[in-house]
Amino acid sequence: MKGAMRKSRYKTPADEFEVQQQTEQRMSTSRRKFLGWMAAAGAGTALPRGASAQQEHFTGYPDSYGVLHDTTLCIGCRSCEAACNEVNSLPAPQEPFEDLTILDQKRRTHADTFTVVNRYDVEGYQKSPVFRKSQCNHCLEPACASACFVGAFTKTPEGAVVYDPSLCVGCRYCIIACPFNVPTYEYDEALEPKVMKCTMCHPLISEGKLPGCVEACPMEALSFGKRTDMITIARERIRKYPGRYIDHVYGEHEMGGTSWLYITGAPFEEIDMRTDLGSLPAPKLTSGALGMVPMVIGVWPVLLGGAYLMNQHRDRLAEKEKSEAVSHAVDRTRAEAEDKAKQVAEKANKEKELAIEKAVKQALAEAAKESGGAEA
Amino acid sequence: MVAAALVVLLGFAFWGCAEGEFPEQTSRADIIVIDSMSAFGSLDRPPVVFPHDQHTEALAELGEDCETCHITMENGRLASRFMRLDDEDKDLVMETYHTNCVACHQTAVEEGRDSGPTICGDCHRVEPLSVSSRVPMGFDRSLHDRHGERLGYECDLCHHEYDEETEELYYAEGEETTCRYCHLPERQDDSPSLSEAAHWACVGCHLATPDAGPTECAGCHDAERQQQIKVLDNPKRLERDQPDFVLLRAGNLDSSTVSTVPFSHVAHEDFNKTCRSCHHESMTPCSECHTLGGSEESRGITLQQAMHDPGSEHSCIGCHNKQKDEIACAGCHSLMEQGRLSEHACNICHAGPTPDLVESVEGRYTSLSQFKPSEREVRLSFTSGDIPDTVTVGILSEEYEPVEFPHGQIVNKLMEHISESKIATHFHGHEDIVCQGCHHHSPVGTKPPRCENCHDEPFNESDLFKPGLYGAYHRQCLGCHQSMQIEEPAGCEGCHEKKPVQDAGR
User: Fold this and answer.
1) Chain B interface mutation, best of A98, A219, A263, highest count of B Cβ atoms under 10 Å
2) pLDDT tens across A356-372, in order?
3) Interface contact A218-B468, CB threshold 8 A
């Protein structure tokens, strides 16, 4: 049942949405229903792709939050990094956040740095250099969550992808699964190391407050609000300043959509943003393979059980045949032996009778001889 | 067959070498990519990158000239193609190059001179030795004036019209246009391509005239050499009976109620390098093609669109918008919505009499005396006493000290920029528009609303597009400084000093 555990623990946002919609029904899911669903899922995999209900696209929780990062407004002051460090009580960096010379090197997120701003000198772009903040993009259907077999990651209805260290087994599949290279690992921790990444300040936004980085940004290069509103703002800026922006909201559809959105004037490739991701969410890319899981779970016991029973049946038949054959052989042998014994006995009797007859004859002859001599 | 196979094999061998070595590419302005064969289907080998000036120089050293490679046609002009008039037959074109190029190179080798390639792969390179850095050449008003002066303003030496009936060229005085109206990028039935026409006319004349302009490719098409071309400060006006001043009006006088636009043609000539900046396809008035409802000739673009399209480089608004990118202008304008027509600005252009009055006043407007931009003054309706010298911005000063904002200094600097520019003077010269660079979306006056009257907490769902106060200040100040390339003050403490005791929060 290990596989079944995995399937039941793994929560796609689509599943979660359904949970929210039909909590009652799903809460009372019985083992019987569960098995029935498994069978259906197993049957689902046998259907043509288009017919599978699993291919439905999850477009995010209604009213979930998002952040819009406008790189044309970012001035690379690192206020967001400082605020992130403070809000998350991360260790102080070697150099203070006011030190902007660190922007001379390209940096990535680390176990003690949930967000970094990088500077890009873009050739031929009027507004170069470009500053871009990177952090967890909080995918609508996160790759990290789909890769996690203990369900340590959850896409919350607020939009944040949060991590539960108490469940984590430290396999770090999430780190490999993330297309944005975001989650990191506490390699320095000998005991109970954790996967570390931006939480979108989930505790703060749940209280109706702003994420640390957003609140700190002096240029409002980070806007916070409902994800749908962020897309509206992005589109409005592109409409108002067509010469300033590339007509694309990064994250609206990338990897099935992310809660963190970007607009920029420099080509995305030039500022290290992947443009090869496509618009399919990560779980969808693996759903074909993962869809096999319920089938394996649902069908194989029957198959194997059937095979076992068939084997047993066959064995039993064979046994029966064998014993019949043996008893038959025994009977025959016995019959033969009895025949033989009979014959031997008959023969013996015959010989006995003959011997008796002979002895009688002999005795009679001797008796006659004795009586004839006496007479003579 | 064996020889052919050998050539192919050797070709591959050398091709391979060329690929492996990755020789450093040079950029030249005289590169012609010979891909004539592509007219007959896909190419079997990479096209040949041909350095024209290098060949001209080499032939000149031998005392040879253009005719070594270019056939002289019946009309006395040189054919633009190499040793042929036209591309008619695939094999013939290929043979023309292979035989003649290789033969000439071979001769040079035999005579012990520096030579070009004689092996396939050395010409047909996947990684060519040179890349083209050719920039297009144009004839601006300065060059036009210099040529006019040299040639005694005999316009017919260059300008001509084509008579379709007699199939002859003739000169029509007062109807001179730009070459490009007839000579299109590609050769047409009755007109050579622009490239052909320009090289025949320009290079032909330069070759025939002592001490004339360049005859080599780089002379005109090299970016650096172009910079060295002498530019006249005050080139003569291009005279072709154009008006100095026009009252632009929207179509039919009876039906139109929109005020006319007093348009200084002569002033706009000074700000544009060529007539084509506005007269993009013919020298006729705009409204001839761009009718009120649009015509087939205007491809449906109406007069209104032709004048106001913010995205077109030929329209009034489009061209004026481009001026807003100037560093002196960008401070205010880069923060404003791009291409948006301000309703307050309509009357700045539409300042003339209404169409029904045009005829009665037309005699008076033979010149621009009433509408000359230079006669407008930059003035603010209020006195300098109304403009505060400094404004203290301290509403957000938790972590930092308040900012002493040099309000008066900034106003003066902006006024100075405006007075230095004719177009800025024209468009900002009245009312107090200059204040609206910062005091936007509110009425102009001595007591504008304070920033915090509109900007408060950020991310208000009912007012999505308005930044919060914190963002509004920084975007306005830094946005302007960035656009105007003002480097000082730099960093947070350039504007506001850090408070000694660090408070929590911002």
Assistant:
1) A219
2) 788 778 878 887 776 65
3) no
